[in-house]
Amino acid sequence: EMEIRSREERFRSITETTKDLIYRSDLSGKITYASPAVEKMLKFSQTEVIGMNFIDFVSPSEHVKAMDAFRRLANGESVNSFEIQINAKNGKKIWVDLNFSPVHSDGEVLEIQGMVRDITQRKNSEEEIKKQNEELKNSQTAILNILEDVEEEKEKLAREKDKIQAILQSIGDG
Q: From CA 23, how far away is CA 71, in angstroms rounded?
């Protein structure tokens, strides 16, 4: 019994101090446990989320993707590095990386457990880099277009110079 208490205390210590959200749900997606990180990440209290369905947090545009992952879990597969956008209580959209695994007993999937990491800052940085790369590409294209225009003008001027020299030569010869 002492060993069980010691394990529970270690588990509690981990779940209460990690920034990642640790949770469990039944096979329908109904949340049965959420670590304290839910308060900081999603602005819900632990008691508020108990009984809510996982899909309630998922942005509508991501429902099909989320349900597909849940079906895979119910079939006994783990789902790792699953990036999806969810909604906090205050309406803020948050990008998360989810790692789910089925909880088995006697070969049967009983529950789903998972870890949710907020990757919003990383996603925003990636989007900013993508935007800057596009701007750089557009600038590069504009510079190349200007250089082509300069080269065309240079060729035109060379032809005009040749014409003027020919005219001057003909005047000088005449």
A: 17
For the sheet with 79-87, list strands across it: 31-34, 21-25, 108-118, 93-105, 79-87
Name the token pair of 127: 């989007």
What does the block give as tokens for 97? 């990386």
Between strands 108-118 and 31-34, the pairing is unpaired
State the number of CA atoms in the 13 A half-sphere of 100 facing the CB: 29
Question: pTM score > 0.85 for this model?
Answer: no
How far is C-alpha 87 from the geometric centre of its chain's CA atoms? 14
Residue spans of beta strands (DSSP E) within the chain: 21-25, 31-34, 79-87, 93-105, 108-118
pLDDT tens digit string along 65-108? Answer: 998 988 888 888 889 988 999 999 999 999 999 999 989 888 88
